[in-house]
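Chain X:
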Amino acid sequence: MEGLQQLSFNIIAALQNLSPALDGVMNAITFLGRLEFYLLLLTFIYLGYDRRLGFRLVLMLIFTDLLGMVSKLLFHQPRPYWLRPELKIAEETSYGIPSTHASSSMAVWGYLVYKLNKTWLWITAGLFVFFIALSRLYLGVHFLHDILFGWLIGVLMILIFVACDKPLSAWAAKLSLGMQVLIALAAAIVIVLIGQLVNGLISGVTDPESWRALAAEARTINYSINHAGAIFGALTGYALMRKYAPFSSQGKWSMRLARFALGFLGVLVIYFGLDVLFGMIAGDESVLGLALRFIRYGLVNFWVIFLAPWLFLKVRLAQRE
């Protein structure tokens, strides 16, 4: 491990010595691997391009990020600047390996390429995946092996989705609405339990004194609450959409862009507005705070996947499929 870390230290130092002007560029590129960017991208795909593809990409992002966060806790390894403070350009509070920026970008863009299979998209996706990973190295927040493991997780998730898509879709189509909602609730509960289990497994392991303070916020169940709320909102929303608001994401580009703009405005209000509001009501780690976190992440997906399409059908911004 020390040899791999030293190799990464050398690569990071070489990248950071290229030019200080790259700091802003790399911070901008790394944003393309954050949740806020995926909210923008997936809202457009779902509401303005292809609802089925958009829904699958939402699930891909949720499960890939969940696997990445579980792996971070199980490995509980440091980030480069935790060991070499002079390499710090950005700051992160979670553990290092794997890079969830690398895993999510590989999974989302890789699955998008697989489904659409267009030459220009292959090139675009490749650039996104490569430069997002490069930005994480440059900023001193990931080792090279963090990136490689993240890419491996992304590829694994693509293979799982490709293999399971048709059989699971056919099975879900036969279920009643009530059963689909129960399955969504069960999935959310399982995700929360996974978070509790993983934290329990590492509760007896102490981080080295040299970087323990930097990892003070790394052991949390917040991520599992986020994913539990997101999966409940997504699965419940899609079941209700299919029954009560089966919209077409096609149509004139003016209508597509209008749906996207209104849909994303709702995302901003829910994601950022409720964050501020709920923060005034309860602390993050309290029982009420965790419940409100679940509601916030669930509502983001529920809005985009069901409520927005239902509204668009009412005001004729979308046609029934």
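Chain Y:
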Amino acid sequence: MFSFNSTIHTNNFDTWHRRLGHCSNKIVKYVLNLCRIPCSEKNKSVCQACCLGKVHKLPFLVFDSIYHYPLNLIYTDIWGPSPIPSKQGYRYYILFMDAHRKFTWLYFLQNRSEVPSVFIQFKTMVELQLNTKIKALQTDGAKEYLALTKYLADRGIQHCISCPHTHEQNGAPERKHRHLTETGLTLLAASSLPSKF
């Protein structure tokens, strides 16, 4: 026999999650508190229906290649444009990151079109300093990098291009961008300097 009271007073969090249309746990808690319905979250589980219906892309596989030597793979990415140019007129920067030790080189740019000349400058410097050649360059496929395709092929450098809209494939420089921008903004805030710096 169905009892309205026993249905309302069920204390299973997963049941309420389903009854409320698979909304977020935060919303379920809010509604239950608002309606003064006691509910335990002890045995809360991952909702398989939510995983199937709400996930926008499949989990990204972890790429666990280990590079034993410098310059076997160089990650690169461009950041910008900055809403405020630097005093020298720079609105972008490009970083080059060695996959071996995550050592990073940073170059400031006024325009994205400077990428090929800056890469050639970087390549000359780093190969001379480390006494080895760049074997592969991984980019996100931006048109500035595509302009380097022939140059790379002529020098035997493999050009690895990440799939469109998959920042995870170029995750190392993406995380470095975040670290650099957050550190810069924190230093500005701590120094009470205006954002033009």
